[in-house]
Write a structure and sequence with these properties.
The chain is mainly alpha-helical and 428 residues long. The chain contains 22 helices and no strands. The two termini are 41 Å apart.
């Protein structure tokens, strides 16, 4: 049964079937091959996979991000970031990184970061003399911050799959690792800019412009503070926070920025609905796939095999990192979380590895797969946006991937990076 399951998934993926339907199709083939399990079990587990109250936060966070990006938010954050880092060598590259870091606290999606403010920054960097392939690689490498810096759809899904982790603590845990990765990207950008002679930005705001740019960016920057602060203080749950985020986004777009017009709403709602549908389809298909794995005793056997190896926590983290890096090349982060977390997280907990640290390692690892050749979804989106070939863009990407691997090693070996902020708010 398990052989048919994996052969079916590999064949479906090879012929170009989307990941979600490949998981569901493989599960269906395995059940048909087994012969004694009633087929009604598959739709039952598909439905139960999304019949969870907390998962209502996903469509509302997606809608809030679309509402916030429906106006001039990208330009506002761009000007705000540029006045801090634009004066340094490779200033537009630094501005790109800082803008995407701010935007990550709003969108929660790597693809949204790359296709939104990332596209604007690539055009500006190209005009300023940067190689377009380098601008695209920098944007793709930085866009992985979307699922790492809260709010994050990946973190919500992780907390659903492994309820022992608080979603609030998990969101807090992603802040410092996200900053570490952003600083690493800035270090690489400074090195490359110095080597190639990329200059600083020409934009030099006056004192009045500085405060105006800051004032205009403040409402956008307050959104993640409102979400995390409200959840951490107990004012509302993560699901309620997603609804608050939607109303705040409408207020900011209509009243403060006055760029969210009613004629934009149909497009915003349709894009949100499509993205929500794709996420829920992935979750439901993965639930059916995970059920077939459980029936086949794969989690139990794999857990027993790993425990039998008697690995130290450090060696276990090394093995998990290698496995996730390979797995993440071929599978998107959400299916990866749904399939692997129920197997690996309990083992890590039994070994004494901090739950929050392990969660961040898994999320960072699988998100890095989006920019790892040859499959990475972020690579495809960014290459189209930048109008460069995937091969030429990949040549510029390796130095950023090396820096991300160093950051991953630090997160894997130093629990403090992931736990310091949750501990400050009382989450142990």
């Amino acid at each position: 049964m398990i052989t048919v399951l994996f052969i079916g998934i590999v064949v479906l993926l090879t012929i170009g079937v989307p990941v979600a339907f490949a998981l569901g199709g493989g599960a269906l083939l395995a059940v048909l091959w087994q012969g004694t399990i009633p087929l009604i079990a598959l739709p039952k587990y598909m439905f139960s996979g999304i019949d969870i109250f907390a998962i209502m936060a996903v469509p509302f966070f997606i809608l809030a991000a679309e509402l916030m990006t429906g106006g001039a938010l990208s330009e506002v954050l761009l000007r705000f970031a540029s006045q801090f880092v634009g004066r340094f060598r490779g200033g537009l590259g630094h501005t790109n990184i800082l803008t995407l870091t701010f935007f990550s606290g709003i969108s929660g999606s790597a693809l949204a970061d790359a296709a939104g403010p990332g596209a604007i920054m690539i055009r500006m960097m190209r005009k300023d003399g940067y190689h377009p392939e380098y601008a695209a690689a920098l944007t793709a490498a930085t866009a992985i911050l979307g699922p790492i810096i809260p709010p994050s759809i990946s973190m919500i899904v992780y907390a659903l799959v492994y309820p022992e982790v608080s979603p609030v603590a998990l969101m807090l845990a992603g802040v410092v690792p996200g900053i570490v990765i952003a600083l690493a990207m800035m270090g690489i950008n400074h090195y490359v800019s110095t080597k190639r002679g990329y200059r600083s930005s020409d934009y030099r705001p006056s004192r009045r412009e500085f405060w105006m740019n800051t004032w205009r960016a403040l409402p956008a920057l307050l959104m993640p503070v409102l979400i995390l602060g409200g959840i951490a203080s107990g004012a509302f749950t993560p699901t309620e926070a997603s609804v608050v985020a939607v109303f705040y986004a409408i207020f900011a777009g209509r009243v403060i920025y006055r760029t969210l017009t009613w004629d934009k709403l149909p497009g915003i709602l349709s894009r949100s609905a499509l993205m929500t549908a794709s996420v829920l389809i992935i979750v439901s298909m993965s639930a059916a796939f995970a059920w077939v794995l459980t029936v086949s005793r794969v989690p139990q056997d794999l857990s027993a095999w790993i425990v039998g190896m008697q690995l130290s926590p450090i060696m276990f983290m090394l093995v998990v990192n290698v496995m996730l890096l390979i797995f993440g090349i071929f599978i998107e982060p959400l299916p990866g979380l749904l399939v692997l977390v129920p197997i690996l997280a309990p083992i890590a907990h039994a070994m004494g590895i901090n739950d929050l640290q392990f969660a961040i390692v898994v999320i960072v690892n699988l998100t890095m797969g989006m920019v790892t050749p040859p499959v990475g979804g972020l690579l495809a989106v960014t290459s189209v946006v930048a109008k460069v070939s995937l091969a030429s863009m990949t040549k510029e990407l390796w130095v950023f991937l090396a820096a991300q691997l160093v950051c991953l090693a630090l997160i894997s070996t130093i629990p403090w990076i992931s736990t310091v902020l949750p501990s400050m708010f009382g989450y142990k």
